[in-house]
Design goal:
Length: about 400
């Protein structure tokens, strides 16, 4: 470059003065810029190579589909960060995630397969009888994850409410919004709370999908007076659904059915009965991914066994009101879309009953019990004064990025 400038100077002495005045500053800027580009590209190269080497196992609980659907968002962002993802699941959970995600591997891990009673009053007894089965599954999970790490060399294990997937051979993360356990009797609640923390404290850290601040979704469930001993990271609300622009509303209702049996079927029957006795247009999503049988319905009713993310988002946007269970993931998605909802908690499931009360008191939803008059309540919904909050569903990205870069 210097030789070229010298030749130019001999050919044109006038130009040489201009070049001498600008050459130092131009060269300085050029080398500063070059240094910046080399530094950032080199840094990103080594950082991304480091992230790409991280093998992460993710296992959502199979009590309903909410644990799986909120894991979709986490999995997709971990893939953006360059991580290799393996999912441990089976049954409807595996079918859902297989249809929603790309470039992931699967390992078969049996679910808890917990049965609910038809009667709310006998639910606690029904769960109590299955406690030995639950502890047996937890012990199996722990042996399973140790064997999986030995065979596949996972760097991280992320468990969404599966208590047995703790390990000392990798970083283990427990995801839950329910740090505080709800129960009908204080004695039982205190016992369950001690058991809950005993298992959570075996993990490396705990992620809570809620706001850390006083204004939050889960209330005292995610903000108990005493936290676990391990580090707690609040991810903010998580939703796979994105709020689009203004769209046409063609349906009065969309009913999204989910949850464990037999309560899923009981709610489904009540929804179909309501649909037969109204002329209002309604979409019913049965929450049965992989099912092939079709349910017959009245002319004003459109029925789907399952809808993927884009389809359910479009169906919700085309409906004025959402009818659903009060599962926490469902609540996060509804609030993220700023849609008016009617939440019906699973009878006897104290967490959902608390959430329904907590949210309805803030006018974030309308709620009633499953054994009450559907037609009467759904008629009252139109006059209910909703006060829907603005929800930021992007906060989790900073937490996940910091976590991966720290590995």
């Amino acid at each position: 470059m210097v030789l070229l400038l010298g030749l130019q100077a001999k050919a044109n002495p006038i130009v040489i003065i201009t070049i001498k005045k600008t050459s130092f500053s131009s060269l300085f800027i050029y080398f500063v810029f070059l240094n910046y580009v080399v530094f950032t590209q080199t840094n990103n190269f080594f950082l991304n190579n480091n992230l790409c080497n991280k093998k992460i196992l993710i296992a959502p609980l199979d009590w309903g589909l909410g644990h799986a659907t909120r894991c979709i968002v986490i999995i997709q962002y971990l893939q953006i960060l360059g991580c290799n993802i393996t999912i441990a699941a089976s049954g409807k959970t595996k079918n859902l995630l297989h249809n929603e995600l790309k470039n992931v591997a699967f390992l078969d891990l049996p679910g808890y397969d917990i049965a609910y009673s038809k009667n709310k009053r006998t639910l606690a007894l029904k769960i109590l009888i299955q406690i030995p089965k639950i502890f047996k599954i937890i012990r199996f999970e722990n042996k399973w994850v140790e064997a999986a790490i030995k065979k596949y060399h996972f760097d991280v294990v992320i468990s969404d409410n599966r208590y047995g997937l703790y390990t000392k051979k990798a970083v283990s993360v427990f995801i839950t919004h329910q740090l505080k356990v709800q129960a009908s009797l204080p004695v039982i609640e205190n016992l369950l709370q001690r058991i809950n923390y005993r298992f959570i404290n075996r993990f490396s850290e705990c992620w809570v999908p809620d706001f850390k601040e006083k204004l939050n979704i889960a209330g005292k469930l995610s903000h108990p007076s005493k936290l676990p001993a391990i580090p707690i990271k609040y991810l903010g609300p998580i939703s796979r659904l994105q709020r689009p622009g203004i769209s046409d509303v063609n349906f009065k209702w969309i009913a999204i059915i989910s949850g464990p049996e037999p309560q899923r079927t009981i709610l489904e029957n009540k929804i179909f009965e309501f649909a037969k006795n109204t002329e209002e247009k309604i979409i019913i999503v049965r929450g049965l991914p992989g099912a092939s049988e079709q349910e017959t319905a009245s002319p004003n009713c459109t029925v789907f066994n399952h809808l993927n993310t884009l389809e359910i988002q479009a169906a919700i946007q085309a409906s004025e009101f959402i009818i659903s269970r009060c599962g926490y993931t469902t609540v996060m998605e509804i609030l993220s879309l700023q849609k008016k909802s009617v939440l019906i908690p699973t009878p006897g499931q104290t967490e959902q009953e608390y959430l329904a009360l907590h949210l309805s008191q803030q006018h974030w939803c309308y709620s009633f019990k499953q054994d009450e008059d559907f037609a009467m309540h759904l008629q009252q919904v139109s006059s209910f004064q909703y006060k829907l909050p603005e929800i930021d569903t992007e906060l989790y990205k900073a937490v996940l990025k910091d976590f991966v870069t720290s590995l």
